[in-house]
Design goal:
By secondary structure, the chain is of the alpha+beta class. The protein has 10 helices and 12 strands.
């Protein structure tokens, strides 16, 4: 096979990237698809640099592979830089994967050095259980399998669906998300996840881009638990919609947190059951979530007791980065 032409990605490539992701989805079932607007949104995310941090392989006007590097807006003890790699079926050769991974390592290290050279670097890549081809290439390149996440689904018409009113902890109230809570919610999120693995404080720009400003965010299906007489977020659960406005609608339980000092008091259960009941009333067919397998709620069987069942897994692969060659 002749060598492809390599160049950085550009915004006009979004339709061809969406087509490549659709081909990968058909082969892998990875749920990594999306339309051209989704791709444009991803390419415009904080930490992306199309000219300096992406590459792609082309045969004529056909896109067959790409890789992107995304830096964080700040670093804690370690800068965790995200790699994303997609290769069209039929082009997943050892040579193609080796070139993409070598480029990713060198480019990630260079971008890291420019921003956070005083911190250690880790390159993070996530694979779906259907992407054995990429997981094995990462293994060969020395990336370690660091974390596993399970995707779980609940049929909202099923008999295990908790549709009754939640048992609210004394002195609390549940309210739907409203923009007036946005800044307060971001502060609460950063406090709650300050000590979590892989987490750094989110800036307002990243928060709006990735969470409450996303076109998939559903404020009417997202809920906050507050004290009865003051404005303070004790617990929250934010939802997005996977299936648009089709008749086969799925609500995705995307972001959740409880103030650490309040764990074990039933706050999350109250918000969780309320959210599911509202989603059912709003016409969603099922609820979906992804959770770290080491999360206490997952390890303790909370979601299974709520009727959720595992249907997919994700793995985070980590490589300690070095200086560019």
């Amino acid at each position: 096979m002749a060598e492809p032409m390599w160049r950085p990605l550009a915004l006009p490539d979004a339709p061809r990237m969406a087509a490549l992701l659709a081909a990968c989805e058909a082969a892998d079932g990875a749920g990594a698809g999306g339309d051209a607007d989704d791709v444009r949104e991803a390419l415009g995310a904080p930490g992306m640099d199309l000219a300096a941090g992406t590459t792609s392989a082309w045969y004529g006007d056909g896109l067959v592979a790409y890789a992107t590097t995304r830096t964080r807006e700040q670093a804690d003890s370690v800068h965790q830089l995200t790699l994303d790699i997609a290769v069209r079926p039929g082009y997943r050769t050892a040579g193609m994967l080796r070139r993409l991974l070598e480029w990713s390592r060198a480019t990630g290290a260079r971008r890291h050095q420019d921003l956070y050279g005083e911190h250690p670097l880790e390159l993070h890549t996530r694979t779906h259980h259907g992407q054995a081809w990429l997981a094995e290439a990462l293994d060969t390149a020395g990336h370690r399998r660091e974390r596993t996440y399970v995707g779980m689904k609940l049929d909202l018409a099923g008999e295990h669906q908790p549709v009754g009113p939640p048992e609210l902890p004394s002195g609390t109230r549940i309210v739907p998300f409203d923009d007036r809570y946005d800044a307060m919610l971001l502060r609460a999120r950063n406090e709650i996840f300050a000590d979590n693995w892989g987490s750094v404080a989110m800036t307002a720009r990243t928060w709006r881009h990735s969470v409450t400003g996303s076109r998939y965010f559903r404020p009417e299906s997202s809920f906050l638990l507050l004290p009865e007489r003051r404005e303070e977020i004790l617990c929250y659960l934010l939802c997005t919609e996977l299936a648009g406005t089709s008749t086969d609608r799925e609500v995705y339980l995307a972001n959740a947190g409880t103030q650490p000092a309040l764990h074990g008091r039933g706050l999350y259960r109250a918000v969780f059951t309320h959210t599911l009941a509202r989603a059912k009333a709003q016409g969603y067919r099922c609820a979906v979530l992804d959770v770290d397998s080491t999360n206490p709620m997952a390890a303790g069987g909370f979601y299974e007791r709520m009727g959720f069942r595992t249907f997919r897994t994700w793995t985070t692969h980590v490589l300690a980065g070095g200086p560019p060659a």
